[in-house]
Amino acid sequence: MADGVEIERKFLVKQLPDGIDANPFGEIEQGYLAITDDVEVRVRRYGEQSFLTIKSSGSESRVEEEIEIDGRRFGALWPLTEGRRIEKRRYRIPAGDRLTIELDVYHGRLSGLKTAEIEFESLSDASAFVPPGWLGRDVTDDPRYKNKRLATEGVPQPR
User: Fold this and answer.
1) By the 8 A CB rule, do 115 and 102 touch?
2) Mean pLDDT in each 10-residue stretch from start to end of the chain (159 residues)?
3) Which residues, 6+ apart, have CB-to-CB distance to 62 below 8 Å?
4) What integer pLDDT is reported at residue 101 of this predicted model?
5) Residue 8 near residue 100, CB atoms below 8 Å
6) What class has domain 5-153?
7) What is the DSSP string of 3-29?
8) What pLDDT is attached to residue 59?
9) What region does 48 belong to: left with phi over 0, alpha with psi -120 to 50, or beta?
């Protein structure tokens, strides 16, 4: 992510790719402290690390600042996220051209949902990306699949 700007596309996952467990993965607990139309503030524990993240609204490109916090701070803030949480296993899959697909397999009330996100250096790189066959529909511009909505509303109903 360059200069605090995230350029990303998000896809549903039709099927898990062959050999998924050969890729590095980690468990994520994520909860939202504040959600508005313009900004979200969340805490996340990813393995042994914890973060406070502030994101602007947007789809393919948006401001994102992530600040590492210690376990004590995470523990103090976590109860404030009650009712606005997600749990998932994240796989990091190399995709060539210095790209990594972050494939999320959700747990708990979001169980069964699988999404994949890819971050890019530029909007032109994002537009040129050709997804592998195991990825499904591009949901980058579908607000129902934003993690903040998943945390508050659950798995979206098909349209």
Assistant:
1) no
2) 78 95 96 94 96 86 91 98 98 92 97 96 93 96 94 90
3) 5, 6, 55, 56
4) 98
5) no
6) mainly beta
7) TTEEEEEEEEESSPPTTGGGS-EEEEE
8) 67
9) alpha
The answer to whether the CB of 71 falls within 8 A of the CB of 50 is yes
- Residue 148's pLDDT is 94
Q: What per-residue confidence (pLDDT) applies to 1?
A: 47
| For the chain, domain boundaries | 5-153
Could you please report the per-residue DSSP string of 80-96? GGTTSEEEEEEEEEE-S
Cα–Cα distance, 9 to 103 (Å, whole number): 12
At 74, which helix (H) or strand (E)?
Answer: helix 71-77
Any idea which residues carry the catalytic annotation?
A: 32
Measured over the CA atoms of residue 157, residue 129, residue 87 and residue 70, the dihedral's sign is: negative
pLDDT at 3: 65
What is the b/e burial string over 78-93, where b = at least 16 CB atoms within 10 angstroms of the residue's CB? beebeebbbbbebbeb
Predicted model pTM: 0.91
Q: How far is CA 64 from the centre of its chain?
A: 12
Contact 139, 131 (CB under 8 A): no
